[in-house]
Write a structure and sequence with these properties.
Elements: H1 6-26, E1 30-36, H2 42-53, E2 59-65, H3 70-76, E3 82-86, H4 95-103, E4 112-116, E5 133-139, H5 146-149, H6 151-155, E6 159-163, H7 175-185, E7 190-193, H8 202-215
Parallel strand pairs: 1-4, 1-5, 2-3, 2-4, 5-6, 6-7
The structure holds magnesium ion and zinc ion.
């Protein structure tokens, strides 16, 4: 029987992630890793973003799901190059999967590569994919206690997007508590509040992402999450 320590796997992943990042950077591609629970509205957020980024960025997408291609079909319907990864049970993407999926993508002219991770607030936190920026999505129906319960994923993210804020009148969700927790966990992170379908808050999020994309790779004051 072979036993492989989780720490070793993470170390190998970090090395591959660094290679991905260098490849994307030298190709002029800005990588974004979108993480969040199932149903938090990640794909809907991407649809709303891409409409607003038209003419300002040329995106491509890697979709990560345990099964099926529902999300990839939605992105494909927008005419955006997309590859679906089926993890067949695995609850997160890793840098190796991203390297393979990127080879299957036509990245000609692409300057924004968005990875929609498997819906999961737990182990997605530990796997650097080689992105330049990580955005964590939290929807109002999930509750305002998630930062306290799953701190690692929020701690390592560059931005928090609170989605479905149009549901605030119907759900007990303390926005100030969430913002306070995020400021404690990730003081440098940007915080956005959006209702993606109605469009509320989407312009400023798109504006910020376009600026980040053009400014290029992750800088020293915005380092990659530490997995040690
Ligand atoms: Mg999705
Ligand atoms: Zn996992």
């Amino acid at each position: 029987m072979k036993i492989v320590a989780a720490k070793k796997i993470l170390k190998a992943n970090d090395q591959l992630a660094e290679e991905n990042r260098e490849r994307f950077t030298s190709a002029g591609i800005f990588g974004v890793n979108i993480v969040g629970s199932p149903g938090s509205g990640k794909t809907t957020l991407l649809e709303a973003l891409f409409v607003r980024l038209k003419g300002r960025a040329k995106p491509a997408v890697i979709e990560g799901d345990i099964a099926g291609s529902i999300d990839a079909e939605r992105i494909d319907a927008m005419g955006i190059p997309v590859v679906q990864i089926n993890t067949e049970g695995a609850c997160h993407l890793d840098a190796n999967m991203i390297a393979a999926a990127a080879r299957d993508l036509d990245l000609e002219g692409v300057d924004l590569l968005v990875v929609e991770n498997v819906g999961n607030l737990v182990c997605t936190a530990g796997f650097d994919l080689g992105e330049h920026l990580r955005i964590v999505v939290l929807s109002v129906p999930e509750g305002d206690d998630k930062l306290a319960k799953y701190p690692a994923i929020f701690q390592g993210s560059d931005a928090l997007v609170i989605t479905k804020i149009d549901l605030l009148p119907y759900i007990k969700f303390d926005v100030d508590r969430v913002i306070g927790d995020m400021v404690r966990l990730a003081p440098q992170a940007e915080i956005f509040q959006v209702a993606a379908i109605k469009g509320e808050g989407m312009d400023s999020l798109a504006e910020w992402l376009a600026r980040k994309c053009h400014a290029g790779k992750r800088t020293a004051d915005n380092p990659a999450p530490d997995h040690s």
